[in-house]
Amino acid sequence: MLASFPCRSLSSLSFRRILQVHAFGNHTNIRTTYSNEFTKNELLRRHNKEHSSTYFDQFRYLRHIKDAPTVPLSFGLLGLVPFAAVPLYMYSTGVYSPDLAFTQLAYSASILSYIGGIRWGRLLEESNDWKQYAYAILPSIAAWLALLVPGRWSILWALTSFQGFAFYDVTRPGYPLWFKGLRVLLTAVSSLTLFATLTLSFVLRKKEAKTKNTNRTM
């Protein structure tokens, strides 16, 4: 929704103004340069194009991964190893292990908490908004609940938490494009590995859990 627009004629060669756009429940100031060939609708169209609004729109950020710094890219990809190792090992042995599935779930919980920490750290010097800080602690609460939800629902809860928080973050301003692309990639792969573990729990022979907590959870 257009909140304000300069009254000066668009026939002038070029000038700068602030275009206030109501996006995703927050007013966002967008500083832009435009000339006589631009119209209000064109500016709004370009702004909306730069912000994902549907689930599949977020995958277009993948093209920006090439701009990611080497260090976060490397650590991000290495962080997928514990996710992928569990279903690959169980598939290779032909046995579903609740103990291994629980280690994957525990790792998922730690990553969910880390996701909340990223948001919290970004807000420290920029915001005093209760709503934003409240959101920053939600991933940690989701991680805690993932360890409490009984049975296979715990894996499904972790999977949907990854998807939900990733979609929220990449559709919000403030993060660099390479980070959004990396976030989409890491979320997609980790979610696929959790789904693989969930599927294997139905199709493979189940090994008896060694710990009481694992037996209750998985």
UniProtKB/TrEMBL annotation:
<keyword id="KW-0472">Membrane</keyword>
<dbReference type="InterPro" id="IPR021836">
    <property type="entry name" value="DUF3429"/>
</dbReference>
<keyword id="KW-1133">Transmembrane helix</keyword>
<dbReference type="Pfam" id="PF11911">
    <property type="entry name" value="DUF3429"/>
</dbReference>
<feature type="transmembrane region" description="Helical">
    <location>
        <begin position="70"/>
        <end position="90"/>
    </location>
</feature>
<feature type="transmembrane region" description="Helical">
    <location>
        <begin position="184"/>
        <end position="204"/>
    </location>
</feature>
<feature type="transmembrane region" description="Helical">
    <location>
        <begin position="133"/>
        <end position="153"/>
    </location>
</feature>
<keyword id="KW-0812">Transmembrane</keyword>
<feature type="transmembrane region" description="Helical">
    <location>
        <begin position="102"/>
        <end position="121"/>
    </location>
</feature>
<protein>
    <recommendedName>
        <fullName>Transmembrane protein 69</fullName>
    </recommendedName>
</protein>
